[in-house]
């Protein structure tokens, strides 16, 4: 199972970004500083062991400085046994040599060897503890590193997934924007096509209207030409046949009123009027051709012609026409 985990770890380590690797370097540097800071503990333990050994040696040396008589008496009075080693007072080998006791020197060397063996055993235990602590620390550091790597891998995977999601969302937004642009472009093209069709229809309608106008103008021109030709034919016929003309005829008339002032004064005179008679025989206009010399007499004559005179219209080839007629009117007492 462990090699598979290592493979998975390797695969996930490749995913870690440069930013995450910098973070791991920082974590490892912090762990190294912690490791160096924790290395003083075994050194302190070894130092304490050596200090204890030195203090024991000093105590042993201090006890050996007692006078030789006391040491011999104590040694002669008591023989140390295995159970009474704690009450044994150590004696230096120099004093034993001076006192002439070779058996005691061998005992002292055996005690020193035992102490050295104890010290070596303690040192071995300290070293074993130190190595065990080192191994435990290393294993703990490895576990912490593995946990940190796993955490970083998980973070990297989450970031990678979030980045993928963001990229997918961005792609979707871009696709939506492109679709909207395409739809807007299509709508614009449709509007342009509709405008073009409307313009074409308007142009066609304008062209049809122009054609109709041209046709109407051509028809009108043709009619005018026909009328002109007909008039020209009539004129030629009239010129060929002598025209028959008749002047207007007076149908009814009335005498004008004589002005009172001119009657009292005895003023007389004749007025010649030009009367314009229409096709229906009505008086259209009256003009004084020759005056009587008195304005009131002229006005009375014009008023009488306009009010009560009636005419038959003049004719030309049997067709009523507008004509003029001169009428003399005389005022006499």
Task: Give the helix/strand layout.
Layout: H1 2-15, H2 18-38, H3 40-64, H4 68-77, H5 93-99, H6 102-240, E1 245-246, E2 249-252, H7 260-265, E3 269-277, E4 283-290, H8 295-308, E5 310-312, E6 314-316, E7 319-321, E8 323-331
Helix pairs in contact: 1-6, 2-6, 3-6
Features:
single chain, 333 residues, alpha+beta, TolA/TonB C-terminal domain, three-stranded antiparallel beta sheet, rod-shaped, disordered N terminus
Can you put this structure into words, describing what you see?
The protein has 333 residues and is an alpha+beta fold. It folds into two domains: 2-74 and 86-173, no CATH class; 246-331, TonB (TolA/TonB C-terminal domain), CATH 3.30.2420. It is 71% helix and 12% strand. It contains eight helices and eight strands, in the order H-H-H-H-H-H-E-E-H-E-E-H-E-E-E-E. The chain has helices at 2-15, 18-38, 40-64, 68-77, 93-99, 102-240, 260-265, 295-308; strands spanning 245-246, 249-252, 269-277, 283-290, 310-312, 314-316, 319-321, 323-331. The strands form three sheets. It has a three-stranded antiparallel beta sheet, with no helix packed on it. The protein has a three-stranded antiparallel beta sheet with strand order 4-3-8, with helices on one face. A hairpin with a 2-residue loop joins strand 6 (314-316) and strand 7. Helix 1 (2-15) crosses helix 6 (102-240), helix 2 packs antiparallel against helix 6 (102-240) and helix 3 runs antiparallel to helix 6 (102-240). The longest helix is centred in the middle third of the chain and has 139 residues, at 102-240. It is rod-shaped, with a radius of gyration of 78 Å. Mean pLDDT is 76; it is low at 1-21 and 66-101.
């Amino acid at each position: 199972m462990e090699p598979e985990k290592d493979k998975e770890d390797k695969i996930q380590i490749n995913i870690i970004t440069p930013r995450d690797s910098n973070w791991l370097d920082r974590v490892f540097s912090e762990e190294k500083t912690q490791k160096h800071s924790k290395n003083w503990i075994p050194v302190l333990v070894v130092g304490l062991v050596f200090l204890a050994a030195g203090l024991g040696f000093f105590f042993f040396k201090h006890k050996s400085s007692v006078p030789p008589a006391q040491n011999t008496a104590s040694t002669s009075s008591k023989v140390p046994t295995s159970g009474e080693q704690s009450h044994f007072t150590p004696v230096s080998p120099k004093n034993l040599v001076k006192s002439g006791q070779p058996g005691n020197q061998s005992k002292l060397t055996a005690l020193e060897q035992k102490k050295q063996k104890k010290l070596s055993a303690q040192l071995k235990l300290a070293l074993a503890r130190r190595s065990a602590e080192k191994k435990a620390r290393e294993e703990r550091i490895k576990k912490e590193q593995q946990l940190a790597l796993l955490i970083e891998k998980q973070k990297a995977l989450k970031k990678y997934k979030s980045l993928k999601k963001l990229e997918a969302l961005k792609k979707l937004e871009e696709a939506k924007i492109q679709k909207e642009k395409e739809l807007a472009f299509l709508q614009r093209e449709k509007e342009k096509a509709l405008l073009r069709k409307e313009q074409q229809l308007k142009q066609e309608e304008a062209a049809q209207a122009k054609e109709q106008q041209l046709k109407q103008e051509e028809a009108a021109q043709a009619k005018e030409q026909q009328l002109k030709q007909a008039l020209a034919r009539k004129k030629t016929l009239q010129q060929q046949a002598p025209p028959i003309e008749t002047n207007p005829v007076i149908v009814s008339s009335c005498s004008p009123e004589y002005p009172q002032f001119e009657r009292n004064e005895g003023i007389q005179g004749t007025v010649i009027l030009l009367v314009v008679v229409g096709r229906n025989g009505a008086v259209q206009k009256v003009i004084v051709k020759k005056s009587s010399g008195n304005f009131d007499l002229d006005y009375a004559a014009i008023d009488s012609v306009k009010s009560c005179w009636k005419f038959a219209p003049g004719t030309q080839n049997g067709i009523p026409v507008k004509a003029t007629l001169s009428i003399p009117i005389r005022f006499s007492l």
